[in-house]
Amino acid sequence: MNSEAFARKRLVECCHMLYDRNLTVSAGGNMSVRINDREILITPSGVNKGLVREDDLVKMDMDGNVLSGGKPSIEHKFHLGIYRENPETNAVVHCHPLYCLAILTRGEDLKSTLTPEGVLLLDQVPTCRYATPGSDELVEAVMEYAHAPAMLMARHGAITQGRTLEEAYNRMEELEFQAHLQILAGNAEELPMSEIMKLREMR
Ligand SMILES: [Zn+2]
Questions:
Q1: Ligand 1 centre and the CA of 169: distance in Å?
Q2: CATH code at 19?
Q3: What pTM, to 2 d.p., does this model score?
């Protein structure tokens, strides 16, 4: 199996896992992987992530041209922006997870410092300002935090990135876990700053 075929297989598996774990619902969210210096694979527009197949994926170049497949996700511009800003990033995951959205619609920030795993996987999680999905304004808002391993998007959802698809996926799963924990734990205290610093050095 060549590297593109392997990437297609893994990206479809990732979409199905995100859907099975309720990290995204219906046709929401979009996921991509970098397959070489010039090209990515991204999920198509309007396809349920539980049903997406390898042939549905769209190949694009870094300038946003479609090289094969149908219509790419409406959000491909911020995926490409994140890849351009982060040469080590090889996967980007964007979802609309329920507990992240509960935190966002309450107007709260996500605390990633309630447990060691939150600090190790997520670091501080910024929230980018709201802008209409698919708009250039949303790309600008996301790009302000282009280097964040994980970010929330006001009234919209979340984005994670990673050196591998598994790392980006794990960050999304951990992000939703931390959001759920924050809802359940109310005003729980964060880990002591000395411990947070120790964990940050372990990353
Ligand atoms: Zn979205």
A1: 16
A2: 3.40.225.10
A3: 0.95
